[in-house]
Amino acid sequence: MEIILAEEYGFCFGVERAVEMVEKALTDGETVRTFGPLIHNQQEMERLGKEGVKTINELQEIAPNETVVIRAHGVPPQVEAELRAKALKVVDATCPFVTRVQRLAARAAAQDRHVVVVGNPEHPEMIGVKGYAPNHAFIVRDASEVANLPKLKKPLVVSQTTIKAQTFFEAVEAVKARTDDEVEVINTICSATRDRQDAARELAEKAEAVYIIGGKHSSNSRKLLAVCKEKCEKSFLIETEEEINPEDLKGIKRVGVTAGASTPNWLIEKVIQRLKEIGEQLEKQ
Ligand code: SF4
User: Fold this and answer.
1) Range 152-175 average pLDDT
2) Vertex 160 angle, CA 154 and 161, to 5°
């Protein structure tokens, strides 16, 4: 049984960078706390937990001897200032793609222009970006919400890094239709999610069964499952190698493997190892 991997899978650049920054702080002997869960993967959080990393959700939980890590989503500048005042050290693991959105929003606000950000207003990334353009930023989920905005002043339109391109462009058109002022449009969607989906689709076309490794509640992993199912009926979303049922692999010559953006390499390697073992067992039968 041949095992093939997707061209793009697993940790995106920003998540990998954040985990490496946590590892570095641990190696330096620091007491590490992440402000909110670092990633949405239970197994990786448990692994980091064993190394002493704890998640805190409130500023009051910080002790003065602790290192606090800002996760890839970023935080509003006011929150960052409070973290810096309370913790011994702050490690800023905000993804550079998110920092770019924050800077663009801050620049437009400094010019007294409005900023329309297309995204989910409850998402931590959006809460952070809004903080960079106080009284100037509006978060809209899609084009339909643009109608609720007040009169816009020379608006800048940007996007949450993980939204669908179509949602962004529809919202841009709605903003343009709503104002006579000049509209500046900067597409700040990160390609990591789309690249993983494109690669998963290609993989599913070539394989007779596909395993997607990721949290059952991780939205990007579930999307990968949906994409794979379109091309390959035998597509399974698993969190660990223990969930692989050898029965599903009987008669399969080519099995594909991909993983969500929060799935660490060590979990992926365990799945590949298990698939190799099953393949060898099936050959002997
Ligand atoms: S999905 Fe993109 S923007 Fe978000 S953390 Fe990963 S690389 Fe950064």
Assistant:
1) 95
2) 125
Structural domains of the chain sorted by starting position, each given as residue range(s) with its CATH number in brackets? 2-10+191-284 (3.40.1010.20), 13-94 (3.40.50.11270), 97-185 (3.40.1010.20)
- Ligand 1 neighbour 172 (Cβ under 6 A): no
- pTM of the complete model: 0.88
Ligand 1 touching residue 262 (CB < 6 A) = no
Is 239 considered catalytic here?
no
Give the three-state DSSP class for 118: strand
CA dihedral 34, 36, 41, 42 (to 10 degrees): 80
Which amino acid residue places its CA nearest to atom 8 of ligand 1? 14
pLDDT single digits (tens) 81-96: 999 999 999 999 999 9
The one-letter code for the residue type at 22 is: V
Tell me the C-alpha distance between 6 and 199, whole Å. 6
Phi-psi label, residue 81: left if phi above 0, alpha if psi -120 to 50, beta otherwise: alpha
Q: Inter-axis angle of helices 265-284 and 42-50, to 10 degrees?
A: 120
- 190 ligand 1 Cβ < 6 A: yes
Give the model confidence (pLDDT) of 64-84 as tens digits: 999 999 999 999 999 999 999
Q: Is 178 exposed, middle or buried (0-12, 13-18, 19+ CB in 10 A)?
A: middle
- Among 30, 66, 80, 125, which one carries the catalytic annotation? 125
